[in-house]
Write a structure and sequence with these properties.
Length: about 240
Amino acid sequence: MKKILILAAIALMSINTAYASLIYSTSNISNNLRDISSTGTQFNLSDDAMTGEIGMGFNFGFYDIFVNTVNVSSNGFLALGGFASDDGCCSGKPLPADDGYNGIIAGLWEDLDTNNNTTGAMFYQTLGAVGSREFVVGFYDVAHYSNSDPVTFEMILHEGSNNIEFQYGLVSYENGTHSVGIENTTGTSGIQYLYGDDIERLSNTGVLFSTTPVSEPSMLAMFAFGLLAMRRLRKNA
């Protein structure tokens, strides 16, 4: 009986640490642009284009998947979990929606165009110490198509906490439909932080998507509780 109780105690601890997926809440945070424009790796994209897979250097939990690479769209979002075939032209979409644009982290999804770094530039870099690293993708003075209203913002993925952070410099545009938010790889869950043309309010602000694990019984938990049930059945027989 003592061994079974020990197993049960371990199992209860396991329940608190095992999770099936992550849920998110949003909050406004202080402005803290990392500005990796002089230290990061610059990449070129033409209008309406997507990068290949870019390594982050660590595993990142996103809803119910773990990834260590992302694809970047010239239109202001990251694609995770293999959803990297569409660049999202030519305006932001509602999030969430099972419309083919799934596995999305949208810092400022709209019809943006660096014109191969002639109207702005994009960089990526992994910062910090192992265990608490940040993967940063920065859009700096990137124009809306065609060559108007430049925007500056960063999409930051946090190792360990799996939090998602957006940081904004100057963003301005009177027209167009912008989307800011996240969506899982099935299009069934997500958070729409902003949808529309009112993006001026993002200037010089920060937004944090904080994660909370959703607990589920681990295999050890189920085994221990099964033993307890068997013992009780034998006792009552």
